[in-house]
DNA sequence: ATTATTTATTGCAATATTACGATATGCAGA
DNA sequence: TCTGCATATCGTAATATTGCAATAAATAAT
């Protein structure tokens, strides 16, 4: 039904799924790439950089902000976005904890 | 329009977005968790483990298989699924390459 | 051969996501 | 104040995703 049965899954599972949403759309990956490259913080000349309309970018930024991976500070009439270091580390750890579970210590192969 | 403008983004960005889809739904995370835990390969007693209907599980398995992060081998009337080690490492690297870009070497803080 | 078991596929309903035009909001400068 | 910029929000259309009942397909067991 397009509706996720959140209650069936663990906190960890739901949280990782949420975090993964920061990367599950190329536009959001592109925004993060751009933020990483332009070390300093930037605003919506992402509209120039990516070929998407301004409301679309704004929507992706809002999602990323909701996930917490970026933060924005008002700077006059502009808004400066950048990576949120704390949340970045948190998400990185969540992924690493998953990735580190395989290969398992004495993983006899399977199929 | 619910349609992603793939052509606007780089190969890297599209590939990471694809890989992230393995983790962007808690059911898929749960499946992966279960595969990691039950070191050996298993089949669809995921239906028992998670509380989802059999066709729903089957669909998630198909997506994970399409991404390549799991593989299945026919074993009589059952199908044994397990992690695909090569693809796992590949995806892990894709994420690490992103994560390693921050904090940047001399990252003067921003906002 | 018939029946049970396991998994995949089909068809469909409900909801979510992506994208954008139009519009609102908020600040800066003339 | 008025005008122009930057960004957010609203409304809406197109498409995607999630979930399941019903059914098919393929093997196993009787």
UniProtKB/TrEMBL annotation, chains A, B:
Keywords: DNA-binding, Transcription, Transcription regulation. It comes from the Bacteria. The keyword Transcription applies. One of its GO terms (molecular function) is DNA-binding transcription factor activity. It holds the Pfam family HTH_5. Gene3D superfamilies: Winged helix-like DNA-binding domain superfamily/Winged helix DNA-binding domain. SMART domains: HTH_ARSR. PROSITE patterns: HTH_ARSR_2. Residues 8-103 form the HTH arsR-type domain. InterPro entries: ArsR-like_HTH, HTH_ArsR_DNA-bd_dom, HTH_MetalResp_TranReg, WH-like_DNA-bd_sf, WH_DNA-bd_sf. This is DNA-binding transcriptional regulator, ArsR family. It comes from Cyclobacterium xiamenense.
